[in-house]
Amino acid sequence: MKYIVLGLGHFGKSLAIHLTELGHEVIAADKNMGIVEQLKDKITHTVCMDTTDREAMTSLPLKDSDAVIVAIGEDEGASLLTTALLKQLQVKRIIGRVVSDLQKTVLQAMQIDEYIMPEEEAAERLAMRLDNIDIIDSFKVSDRYSIVEIRVPSKYVGMTLKDANLTNKYKVIVLTTVKTYEKSVKEKVVLHKEASGIAGSETVLQENDLLVVFGELADIKRLIQNVD
Phi and psi of 212, rounded to 5°? Predict the structure, then answer.
């Protein structure tokens, strides 16, 4: 697929590099020539340009892209002008980065339905981890539902999912189990995770495994606390 990433700060740079590594064609633009030069070997194509300039923007293959991501963070004005310009140019899929409530309101007024709040999402995920030591990571799907990675409660170690009956007891669905082990990478020991595939009724819950569960946060917390 073909993506255009506008803005190569920490977020935009990371996004463009990861998309390139995943095999997608990525055109990344920033007005800072130093950043563009620095990343030219890590991203499919890099361009130095002012994304608020209509003439410059029309030089990009906007119509052929599967999505254009406005990753500009620090300069909210430039981010909104860039987004407005993309709307005028009738780009089919625009994903905006939001750094304030006001910016979010303006994007909604522009009828931009896809936007990301990386700082807020990262803060929320950290808060959940600090709130409960058994929560390893989390992802909010909607206002009600989350996907959360937790440790297997000791009460259920050695049991199959069928015997544990977590869905009926806690109204949560186990998506997969994850094994963790240490791995040496470039002379550093890092913790590596490996999912076991889609969980089934005969999946056995092993000690030190992690569970990836879907449900309401209150129900997931009841599972962690073993509250029947």
Answer: -105, 110
